[in-house]
Write a structure and sequence with these properties.
Elements (H helix, E strand, L loop, with lengths): L2 E2 L4 E2 L4 E2 L4 E2 L4 E2 L4 E2 L4 E2 L4 E2 L3 E3 L4 E2 L4 E4 L12 E4 L4 E2 L4 E3 L7 E4 L4 E2 L4 E2 L4 E2 L4 E2 L4 E2 L4 E2 L4 E2 L4 E2 L4 E2 L4 E2 L4 E2 L7 E4 L4 E5 L1 H6 L4 H15 L4 H11 L4 H12 L7
Parallel strand pairs: 1-4, 2-5, 3-6, 4-7, 5-8, 6-9, 7-10, 8-11, 9-12, 10-13, 11-14, 12-15, 13-16, 14-17, 15-18, 16-19, 17-20, 18-21, 19-22, 20-23, 21-24, 22-25, 23-26, 25-27
Antiparallel strand pairs: 27-28
Helix pairs in contact: 2-3, 3-4
C-alpha cells in the first residue's frame, strides 16, 4: 500500500507501484510511472514522462523529468528514466529528453547531491557520485563509478570515463578518460585515481598497467601514436581495452 499525503497531488493517470511514500506538497503529473519502495519527501515534483524504478529517495525540491532547456524542443513526447536505489538530494533537476535521443537516463545506485542539474538526453551510469551544484549540459555521458566533485561545469556532448575523480570547481569541454584524476586550471590530466581504484578492488598489477597506458598515451603528441604504443607494449586487459576504445571513439578529444 502506498502512503500518500493528503497534501500531495497525484494525477489519476499516474502509475504507482507499491509501498511508495509520497510526502506533502509533492506533485506527480500524468504519463508518469513510479515503481515500488520509493520515498518522495515533501515538495518533490515528478513531471510528464518520468519513468522511475524502485527504492529511490527524492529529497525536498527535487524536480524530475522537467521540460528541456533547449530551444529546439518543440513539445515532443519524451521520457526521463531513473533506475533503482538512487539518492537524489535537495533541488536536483533532471530534464527529460528531446527528439535527439528521446530520453534522459540515470542508472542505479547513484548519489546526486544538492542543486545539481542533468540536462536533456544525458546518460548517467551506475554508482556515480556527483557533487553539489555540478551542472551537465545536454547529451553528456557519464560512465559507471565516476566521482565528480562540487561546482563542476560540463559542456554539452562530453563524455566522462568510469572510475574518474574530477576536482571541484572544474570546467571542461573535452572528454575525461577513465581511471584518472582531472583537475587544476585549466583542467588537465593529474595522474591515476590511485586511491579510488584501490578502494574498488583493482590489483596493484592492474593499476600499474593503467598508469603505464597513460604514460605511453601522453608521451606522444598525436594520440593515435600513443594508442599504438599501448598496443605494442601492454597486455590487452579489459581495462586497457576500455582506455583504447574510449580515446579512439572520442569526438571532442580528451583532456591532456
Amino acid at each position: 500500500m502506498n502512503q500518500i499525503s493528503p497534501l500531495a497531488y497525484v494525477h489519476p493517470e499516474a502509475q504507482l507501484g507499491d509501498n511508495n511514500v509520497i510526502g506533502p506538497f509533492c506533485y506527480i503529473d500524468r504519463n508518469t510511472v513510479i515503481g515500488d519502495n520509493n520515498v518522495l519527501m515533501n515538495s518533490v515534483t515528478i513531471h510528464f514522462g518520468a519513468r522511475i524504478g524502485n527504492g529511490n529517495e527524492f529529497f525536498p525540491g527535487a524536480s524530475i523529468s522537467t521540460k528541456p532547456q533547449d530551444l529546439k524542443f518543440k513539445g515532443e513526447e519524451t521520457t526521463c528514466q531513473i533506475g533503482d536505489n538512487n539518492s537524489i538530494r535537495e533541488n536536483v533537476t533532471i530534464s527529460r529528453g528531446t527528439f535527439s535521443k528521446g530520453t534522459t537516463i540515470v542508472g542505479n545506485n547513484n548519489l546526486l547531491m544538492e542543486n545539481m542539474h542533468i540536462a536533456h538526453d544525458c546518460v548517467i551510469g551506475n554508482g556515480c557520485i556527483i557533487g553539489n551544484s555540478t551542472k551537465f549540459a545536454g547529451e553528456v555521458v557519464v560512465d559507471d563509478n565516476a566521482i565528480i566533485s562540487a561546482v563542476v561545469l560540463c559542456h554539452q556532448f562530453c563524455r566522462v570515463g568510469g572510475y574518474v575523480m574530477i576536482q571541484g570547481g572544474s570546467r571542461f569541454s573535452q572528454d575525461i578518460p577513465p581511471y584518472i584524476i582531472a583537475g587544476k586550471e585549466p583542467i588537465r590530466y593529474a595522474g591515476i585515481n590511485l586511491i579510488g581504484l584501490r578502494r574498488r578492488g583493482f590489483s596493484n598489477e592492474t593499476i600499474g598497467q593503467i598508469h603505464d597506458a597513460y604514460r605511453l598515451l601522453y608521451s606522444k603528441g598525436v594520440l593515435s601514436e600513443g594508442i599504438e604504443e599501448i598496443k605494442k607494449n601492454l597486455p590487452m586487459t579489459p581495462e586497457i581495452q576500455y582506455i583504447i576504445d574510449f580515446v579512439s571513439s572520442s569526438k571532442r578529444g580528451i583532456i591532456r
